[in-house]
Amino acid sequence: MKNLDSVFAAYLIGWGAYFVFYLTIAKRTANLRAELDRIKNSLPHAK
Amino acid sequence: MSKRIILAAVAFLLVVAAAYASFFIAPTERTMGLIQRIFYFHVSSAWAGFTAFFLCFLGNLMYVWKREQKYDWLGVSGAEVGLAFTTVVLITGPIWAHPVWGIWWTWDARLTSTFVLWLLYVSYLLLRTLVDEPDRRALLSSLFGIFAFIDVPLVFGAIRWWRTQHPQPVIMGGQGSGLEPTMKAVFFFSAFAMHVFMAFLIVERYSLEKMHTEADLLARELEAQ
């Protein structure tokens, strides 16, 4: 089982990086959606 | 159920199946042993990254030609997703290299051109933060993106054209190269799974950029009133 730790490290770090990247997209989307709702509510014709 | 949720579920199932196949179905390589299993993740991530950069390149070309915002959205989505995949390639490569070569990194043609590729797309994203006017930002970054894509065929060809520390190609490598049939099947399945996952990320990033443009337009409308 030589180098099993390196194999797991590569997969864990790699998938960790993808997960963090996806989280940044999800967070930016949620923030922007909130901002969009705020702007829409501020526009006179939206009221 | 929305198409995006279905795509996310399919991508998740495929990458789990690909990881299972890489660990439990693919045979252990004779010379390198277990460490070679990184190949299925490392190379399929690299291929998915190349495809994302190709989508960016297509978006850049189409924007320069048509000047429609949707192509700029595709450009930035492809660049950011491609950069994420290339980052993983640059992390997993040294983890594989260290036990096999005895070193983490060497400045050979393949590794150097991959690092330059990463720097080029970091520059592409930085450039976008420096220009405020949307049309000018889209045009400048599209022109830079077309230039940056020139490095992708260089990365692909580096191990075919020059002598490198990085192994010679086992896929599309010409005579004497190749993979054992089960390894080949697992690799192509992993590459397919990674491409579906990449497509999911592109769709998510594209919709974020689209929403960003909508928010900018509404903010300007609000300022004008």
Architecture overview:
The complex is a heterodimer of chains A (47) and B (225). Chain A is an all-alpha fold. Chain A has one domain. Chain A has one helix and no strands. Chain B has a single domain (3-224), classed as Four Helix Bundle (Hemerythrin (Met), subunit A) (Up-down Bundle), CATH 1.20.120. Chain B is built from seven helices and no strands. Chain B has helices at residues 3-25, 38-66, 69-101, 109-130, 134-148, 151-161, 181-224. The model of chain B has no long low-confidence stretch (mean pLDDT 93).
Summarize this structure briefly.
The complex is a heterodimer of chains A (47) and B (225). Chain A is mainly alpha-helical and 47 residues long.
Q: How many domains would you count in the coordinates of chain B?
A: 1
Proportion of residues in extended strands of chain B? under 5%
Distance separating the two termini of chain B: 39 Å
- The CATH topology of chain B is given as Four Helix Bundle (Hemerythrin (Met), subunit A)
What is the alpha-carbon Rg of chain B in Å?
A: 20 Å
Shape of chain A: rod-shaped
Please give the largest β-sheet of chain B. none
Please mark out the parts of chain A with pLDDT under 50 across 5 or more consecutive residues, or reply none: none
Tally of separate domains of chain A:
1
Would you tell me the overall average pLDDT of chain B? Answer: 93
- Most strands sheet of chain A: none
Number of E strands of chain A? 0
Unreliable stretches covering 5 or more consecutive residues of chain B? none
Helical residue percent band of chain B: over 70%
Oligomer: heterodimer
User: What sequence of helices (H) and strands (E) makes up the elements of chain B?
Assistant: HHHHHHH
| Mean pLDDT level of chain A | 89
Give the count of helical stretches of chain B. 7
Q: Structural class, from secondary structure content of chain B?
A: mainly alpha
Structural class of chain A: mainly alpha
